[in-house]
Amino acid sequence: MVQRQIPSWGDLSPLLRLRPFDPDGTRRRLAGALTIADLRRLAARRTPKSVFDYTDGAAESEISLRRARRTFANLEFRPSILHDVSEVDTTTSMLGRPAALPFSFAPTGFTRMMQTEGETAVVRVAERRGIPYALSTMGTTSIEDVAAAGPDARKWFQLYVWKDRSRGEDLMARAKEAGYEALILTVDVPVAGARLRDSRNGFSFPPQLSVKTFLDGATHPNWWVDLLTTPTYQFASLDAWNGTIGELLDSLFDPSMTMADLEWLRSVWDGPLVIKGIQTLEDAKRVSAAGADALVLSNHGGRQLDRAPVPLRLVPEVRAAVGEATEVWVDTGIMSGGDVVAALALGAHATMVGRAYLYGLMAGGERGVERAVDILSGEIVRTMKLLGVNSVSELGERHVRLH
User: Fold this and answer.
1) pTM over the 0.85 mark
2) Which residue out of 220, 300, 349, 399 is catalytically annotated?
3) CATH tag for 37-74+94-384 (out of 3.30.1360.10, 3.40.50.2000, 2.70.50.60, 3.20.20.70)
4) DSSP H/E element including 353
5) What domain of life is recorded for the organism (predicted)?
């Protein structure tokens, strides 16, 4: 028989203690975000649908993005037990210099549209956390203003090849003058991908009022107040634009670019060169032979060619083919620190993350980006410890199995 009694106040009081209320709503929201998926849900609530979909979406049926994320979800870790993992070193080398974490912030366009602090918030977090940051050609803060916001950050500039080559040369000269360390040439955008969410939402830049956007804006008043009461967007590379994103890309970027144009690029840019958008072993060999300092296995986050190869699956064979001649980085589908560790174990020197920090930015501005880094770094450390490794350099294919 169970003996029962009426509980006394002394029995109940420890159970009734309430957590202190934090009046800072942003801090309160972010503290409850334990994963990047949590930040994504916050971002969806705080951002107009068309803007969130621009960040979250991919091309056509979005098969490329789903396949990339499914590949990460289906892989199997293989831990080794009974190792002293009381101390873990997450430092890696990118372009011959140390990075505190084995990822960089990937270049993303129109970032101030997602949250008004935009690129300056991201570069400040990068500076504090020792993470390289790449400013996009399609960024909404100028090259010089980003440099001023993060003077001690490792800054890279991402370039698309323009039909007007003199514009590209001017951008590279500005980046060099402002102290940008490396150039990232993105090569998988001869034309814009068919991003159907954007078309269905009537998405344009800058946002234009319609019945749909007005009704959506009524449920996101803070976003619209920020848009209307902060300085107008200042592009990294443009004076102004009115139209859709696809129209902008197709009007500016050169679909006739070939490998021969790398010689022109090298004649203008004398710093480290990264080629982003490699999707086959053959192309990886070509850009490595052409002298790229690093290549990024990437299908543009699934935003260009649907049914493109999954970049993560290319890592082992590309690393074996190029060896140490060219650093091998990978992006697309990375949503956790475990994803980062898996990519490193398969042979990547480093990774790039884009959507993960953008969800944080939309969820809480600069503090949201910081929270995204906290989440990723915590997951990286925990995964490494559970695998039985002390440093990034110890990770290898014995720690992961692709399915």
Assistant:
1) yes
2) 300
3) 3.20.20.70
4) strand 350-353
5) Bacteria
